[in-house]
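Continuing the series of single-chain predictions for the mutant panel. This is the parent chain; the variants come on the following pages.
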Amino acid sequence: MKHILLAGLVSLSFVTSAQAGLITFTDRATWEAQLSAFQTESFTLPDTGTLAANVTHTLGLVTFSYPGVSSQGFPQVSSNQFVGDVWSVSSGGGTSETGPHTFGLPSAVTAVGADFSSAERSTLTAGGMTVTVPTDSGVQFFGVISDTPFSSFVLDHNQTATTNNDLFIMDNLSFGNTAAVPEPSTFALLGIGGIALVGYGVRRHRQQAA
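Parent structure:
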């Protein structure tokens, strides 16, 4: 009886997690352990200087574009004394910023992550869901796994009137896919099956007691 009840509860927990949208990670090893395969762009490229707005740029394995809300933003690939070659963007202050930064991937994936620095107020949007990148004074990994495949993701610096001369740095951008996971409808069937098992167990227990 206890085993049947446990099976039902586990099935219901699967249904809940299938509706989560994005699962976030702050440890790279834990994030990588969930993936069947992934690629990493380390931005070991020549310094690009400021990348022009409204143009799709190829940065190794990925593409990059932004709408150019302000000419005071400076997205680029450059050498950084702390983490080597990186992608970075600095804002000129006030409400000026370069707008959402869109990164295109070679194919649809379900996971993306990178090492971030100075990511205050920044958000990451993937698979139709948006999460906040954790703030940390040093270099910190942040990754997500989505239940919806995506072929691009968006980073938004979210500059405000009181945040001047911000520098946002990203390195070791990784992306890939998790092992095959049943569709949400399959999870729902598992949940229904779990409830049915519980009902059957209760009925059988009553019959035996009688």
